[in-house]
Design brief:
This protein has 386 residues and is mainly beta. The protein is built from one helix and 29 strands. The protein has one domain: TolB, C-terminal domain (Neuraminidase, 6 Propeller). The chain has one helix at residues 2-22; strands spanning 50-56, 65-67, 73-76, 83-87, 97-102, 110-114, 117-121, 126-129, 143-146, 161-162, 168-172, 188-192, 199-204, 212-214, 221-225, 237-243, 248-249, 255-256, 260-261, 279-283, 287-292, 305-310, 323-329, 335-342, 346-347, 352-353, 357-362, 368-372, 377-383.
């Protein structure tokens, strides 16, 4: 009988552990059921002269965005296994047609468009849909370009983009909250030559970046990085980084936010040996997509500004993030300040959330698209003048 009781107790402990590894204690998000037409956009606070509207509705788990020159918007997702193609055929500023490009993918978060072809990043591979816009209604199976990335799903979803050098940049997140990995491929940003299939590691010490871009003048790489968990509500801060050259190390798992040594892995290390962030962001704000100011619609006062989609905290006792922030830079790439651009997806008084920004993408006219994987929507931000 005692053996039976012990087995039952062990089983209960295992079940509890599994439960909290997926949905840990703290302040979990409650899904607020709203129809797209009832999104409280009036609760969103924008600078004077800016407006926001729903550009696409019912886009399940809308994550990474890639826009073709003809205006087709490709949307990846993480939890649903899908990639969508959205079109505004009526040319009235609202998506009216949706095609499903991929089903049952392995966290196909990342999407990139180049020379008529769509590239999709799953956990361990990159696939290509040639001449995608000619086959939206009947899509052929994709070509597998590269399938040598790790299969671990923890931080395994990827953001991808083509750099100014024509190579496809692909991050590989840490397979843990914080750990030292035997395989050098983890905690990095890599790049892939899609013609030769050659892949190389270019930056290291990066816990989990799910958004990067290039400075419009210098062409240098900039990226967000999500700080580690379980060091308390207020540390470490997440990061905005830039890479003026290849072969740098940004500290993970030894140093966080540029000046805090990890309580376990930081022993014997010095933060001075690693590249510090340009801007320490809020703790656990989960910065994802980033974009530099684009000329065309927004006032020129936003020049040299980085916009950041803060997905929001998942286990902080008091929620934080759930906004679009911005970092203004000087001519030497030093931060002139970290502030809010759009706020309101988080009801701070009630500590409840109705939206979570993920990725940013500029439209041809200079308006800004924002994906939201919580509200299953995509918004469009325009400047109409004060």
């Amino acid at each position: 009988m005692s053996l039976k009781i012990n087995l039952i107790c062990c089983l209960a402990i295992i079940i509890a552990s599994c439960k909290y590894s997926v949905n840990p204690p703290g302040n979990p998000l409650k899904k607020i059921q709203k129809s797209p037409s009832s999104f409280p956009l009036e609760d969103l606070k924008l600078p004077p002269g800016f407006t926001i509207e729903v550009y696409a509705e019912e886009v399940k788990n809308a994550r990474s965005l890639a826009l073709s020159p003809t205006g087709t918007l490709f949307v990846g997702n993480r939890s649903g296994g899908n990639v969508f193609a959205l079109q505004d055929k009526a040319k009235n500023g609202v998506i009216d047609t949706k095609h499903t490009i991929l089903e049952n993918g392995n966290m196909p978060n990342g999407v990139a468009f180049k020379d008529g072809d769509l590239y999709v990043a799953e956990v361990n591979r990159i696939v290509k849909f040639p001449n995608i816009e000619s086959q939206l209604t009947s899509v052929n199976p994709p070509e597998v370009l590269f399938d040598k990335y790790p299969t671990e799903s923890h931080h395994g979803w990827k953001y991808i983009a083509f750099g100014p050098d024509g190579l496809l940049y692909i991050p590989v997140g840490a397979p843990c909250n914080v750990c030292e990995s035997e395989d050098r491929i983890f905690n990095t940003i890599t790049r892939l030559n899609v013609e030769t299939k050659e892949m190389e590691i270019i930056q290291e010490g990066i816990r989990n970046t799910v958004g990067f871009t290039w400075h419009p003048q210098t062409k240098e790489l900039w990226f967000s990085d999500n700080g580690r968990d379980m060091m308390g509500d207020d540390m470490p801060g997440c990061e905005l980084n830039y890479a003026p050259k290849v072969g740098l190390h940004y500290g993970f798992p030894y140093c966080h936010q540029g000046d805090i040594l990890d309580p376990k892995f930081g022993e014997g290390k010095s933060c001075e040996d690693y590249v510090a962030p340009v801007q320490v962001l809020g703790p656990h704000v989960a910065p994802l997509g980033i974009e530099f100011y684009k000329e065309g619609m927004f006032p020129p006062s936003y020049k040299n500004t980085v916009f950041i989609a803060e997905h929001g905290s998942w286990n902080r006792s008091k929620k934080i993030g759930y906004r679009i922030s911005m970092v203004k830079l000087d001519k030497n790439n030093n931060s002139l300040g970290y502030e809010t651009f759009i706020d309101g997806w988080l009801d701070k008084a009630e500590d409840e959330v109705w939206g979570r920004p993920v990725d940013l993408e500029w439209m041809e006219d200079g308006s800004l698209l924002i994906s939201d994987d919580f509200a299953n929507a995509i918004y469009r931000v325009s400047y109409v003048g004060e």
